[in-house]
Specification:
Layout lengths: L9 E4 L5 H14 L22 E7 L2 E11 L1 H4 L5 E9 L8 H14 L5 E6 L4 H5 L4 E2 L4 E3 L9 E6 L2 H5 L1 H6 L2 E3 L4
Parallel strand pairs: 4-5, 7-9
Antiparallel strand pairs: 1-2, 2-3, 3-4, 5-8, 6-8
Length: about 190
């Protein structure tokens, strides 16, 4: 079915996301990143708990999810940088709609949410092959890597960051080159 009008990005608070969209996001996450659902996350029914104040960026046609991303507040005890840190996660586009600019639209909307917020820095994790995509939107690769508390080896995912405030920019070199230790990645 062709869509005559371009689709727009909706910015939704966690309580405003229709249940049908939430389950489509989780289903797509299960397909894209099956290893996320090992152990304690196996039976999740939403991408993030409400305690991280998730803001969902959604492109949909009627009730069908096209593309999605989340901006979240990363708790201090998760990242321990001494800064206010926001995360971008669950950047997904349904396979039939890839290559149509929807992920670009949700990432642009995520950047707008971040720019209007109070975080010092924002971080996301992606496969290294996606670095050029995120770099087009002002995200900077952090070669220092990331180590989760329960892991012996650094994550193979690439950490990318945006430096949003004076405090964030002052910490840029440390965050780019140093290894970031986190309780969990998002």
């Amino acid at each position: 079915m062709d869509i005559a009008a371009p689709l727009s990005v909706e910015v939704l608070g966690t309580h405003d996301v229709p249940a049908s969209i939430t389950w489509q996001v989780v289903t797509l996450m299960r397909c894209e990143w099956p290893s996320l659902f090992d152990g304690g996350l196996r039976w999740i029914d939403r991408p993030f708990d409400h305690d991280v104040d998730p803001v969902h960026l959604v492109v949909r046609h009627a009730g069908v999810l096209v593309s999605h991303a989340i901006v979240l507040r990363v708790p201090d005890d998760v990242h321990r940088t001494g800064l206010r840190l926001a995360g971008v996660a669950s950047v997904l586009t349904s396979p039939p709609h890839r290559g149509e600019g929807h992920a670009s639209a949700v990432l642009h909307a995520a950047n707008q949410v971040l720019d209007g917020g109070d975080a010092d820095v924002a971080a996301l994790f992606c496969e290294p092959q996606y670095e050029p995509f995120y770099a087009r939107f002002g995200w900077v690769a952090c070669p220092g890597g990331t180590l989760e508390d329960d892991e012996l080896e650094p994550s193979t995912d690439l950490r990318m960051m945006r430096f949003l405030s004076d405090a964030g920019r002052a910490a840029q070199r440390r965050l780019l080159d140093g290894q970031l230790r986190v309780r969990w990645t998002w």
